[in-house]
Predict the structure.
Amino acid sequence: MNCGQSSEESKEVPEPTERVMLVKRLLKVGEDYDVKGVKIESDANTVTVKVEFPEYDPARLRRLAYKLSEENFMNVSELMELYKAGFRSQEELEKLLLRPMRYRRKENIGRAVFD
């Protein structure tokens, strides 16, 4: 750009393909749900997603952590459930409580009634 002259730079951005939009959406699975890991593989005509779930029910553990924080009481089997899942300290329980609340979803509410 010279003094007194203005220049304009234009850049054409291609419209995202269905494939690109799908992969971006799939990448959010790990952020939106309590999963242990998400692996996405892509080749010429396929996209493969592998989702690994934790060995425990995250929604149930969050309910137990809330119960402990609100009532300051928990039976031994509930405490052991948290311990086996790796939530052994107050700091770990606080991290569990900070995770997104998915238990409000319809299927998890029904599950909570039967727990």
Observations:
- Residues 58-71 form the longest helix (14 residues).
- The CA atoms of residues 105 and 111 lie 10 Å apart.
